[in-house]
Amino acid sequence: MSAAEENPLLDEFTRKEYEFGFTTDIDADTLAPGLNEEVIRIISHKKNEPEWMLNWRLEAFRVWQTMEEPDWAHVQYEKPDYQAISYYSAPKSKAPLGSLDEVDPELRATMDKLGISMEEQKRLSGVAVDFVMDSVSVATSFKDKLAELGIIFCSMSEAIQEHPELVKQHLGTVVPVKDNFFSALNSAVFTDGSFCYIPKGAKCPMELSTYFRINEAGTGQFERTLLVAEEGSYVSYLEGCTAPQRDENQLHAAVVELIAKDDAEIKYSTVQNWYPGDAEGKGGVFNFVTKRGICETRAKISWTQVETGSAVTWKYPSCILKGDGSVGEFYSVAVTNNAQQADTGTKMIHLGANTHSTIISKGISAGNSQNSYRGLVQIGPRARNARNFSQCDSLLMTDTSGAHTFPYIETKNPTAHVEHEATTSRIGEDQIFYCLQRGLTEEQAIGLIVNGYAKEVLNKLPMEFAVEARKLLTISLEGSVG
Amino acid sequence: MLKIENLHARIGDTEILKGLTLSLGAGEVHAIMGPNGSGKSTLASILAGREDYEVTAGNITFDGVDLLELDATERAVAGIFLAFQYPVEIPGVSNINFLRTALNSIREQREEAPISGKDFLAKVKACAQLVELDGKLRDRSVNEGFSGGEKKRNEVFQMAMLEPRLAVLDETDSGLDIDALRIVSHGVNSMRSADRSFLVITHYQRLLDHIVPDHVHVLAGGRIVHSGGKELALELEEKGYDWIVDAQATEQA
User: Fold this and answer.
1) Above 0.85 for ipTM, yes or no?
2) Which residues of chain B have a CB within 8 Å of the CB of A440?
3) Considering CB atoms only, which of A431, A439, A455 is closest to B105?
């Protein structure tokens, strides 16, 4: 008996349309497809960048041309034609925007659909939002309040104009241009992203939040995020994504660099809900992201991610624990359904003494999807008494989905203590029946069980994100037991 | 209230129920006893709507409604509750959240308004007291790390919260020490009322000292082979099941 016959709901919900599948009709200033030096010069020129930035991009492009797209991940996809992508698309705006009221009403409507009405955000939640549509930031709020503390939170383009020395000093220091194929590409063509600078001793009083959104058909989005936390400072940063439905694949190759100086703490949370493609896997976003942070002495970086979207995900938010006593954390829930493929995990590189890292990964596989955890724990020769605890759990919703775990452990110091636990379980029919007997519907039962399973990770998210993430998990998996 | 007629059911190729007939009136407590493998737990599962079993003949009506037409959720909404023999654990889901979701789901399907937070908490408090369930167990994940006795008390707690019209207790006494047995029985007895019926499945007469049934039935070989009053339980305790099963066999021969 086929899974669909066994469970009519499965069939119904796997055909469920992507809920955020809409596009905004805005005049866009879009570059013809293709990538060459000229394109990079145009991007740099349009953004009115200084010479050093252009040279940095050109160097990255030269490096990228010598590199090959990696194929070691447990994913299969048709490699994008990099000459068929347009590398620049900016919403046309007549003059610099002085206030939110000047934002294009269409754009505002899009924000409303995403549930991020700026006024509401301002008034109620105390979240400063740097909204990126396609590649240019169009609205930034709360800037003045942050400025009082000396905190800089702006688009990358603005940072290059206003704070060139800070950008120049830190850009590419955590993820070097030649780190990998996608980081080199990003370095050459990134059009925008976020920049955040927390001065010495400052505790950022609000969650900093950025919503990215791919909008123009066929436009790759290459954000660049740089977050610098000076000595003894603290910041919590939220990144959330939704993308409209598309027929062709959309490439998303972002680079995120975090720098936590002595005694600083950075909490970086992501809810990722890019368009995953249809039930056969047609369309959908390729999410090839390089995220890495470096911790100086006693600094702490904590990555939390809830990944429910994208056709193909290739993503390993990592920590370089350089300073003695530094701490790295990675908390992840990755859901794959239908034909989605995810290869995600983390790298914890212990260089300093007494460094600690924790990895909690919860994979959930439904439909015909493939979900892999890939993680590296590396203990360097100087890392006396380094500690790592890793827990990788996989939950299978169907017989036709796959869960894989690829843990790599390299220890060059005998005092290191590394623990790895892994479990794989099938969602229990007994659990579901127990819930049904108490009057829950099947969707409620699955939502409850899955959220319970992922609770350890969801609890790490800031409150407003946790609510959204719980809904997303339930929506992504409704009726998917087979 | 509940009428089971000539019920035949199987799991895979094995026929387990072979013509079971039973009827329960409103407010009555019936006990089902019988040797291992006679089909007691199968009966409980079928009443609750578990799909692993295939009903091949016969019918079940509940308040005149064809029960076999309803799925498990609809049966719960209709007022059927099963206290599981082996309650499952649901990690990461608090008991309280679970019950509130269940209660409101039932209310929604009955087109009733959701229960208010205040009323819900008051109800939780009252029901928890009934089975001496302490605060920690209410707030912990559903059955996770509960002892055998705590799980059974939690089942009765949930029963009290959901106020079913028909409660099926599947070997609720198994694994209980004498104190837990007393607590669980007290919970059940407090819920007895003129419009609520109980089907108590048990191996041991011991439970029936505490929950005194109106009728006792012996289930053997997939059928009710003997019925009597509460004194039948004592007789079974004394003489075992063989005399009934043998007599039945002789009768049939």
Assistant:
1) yes
2) 73, 101-102, 105
3) A439
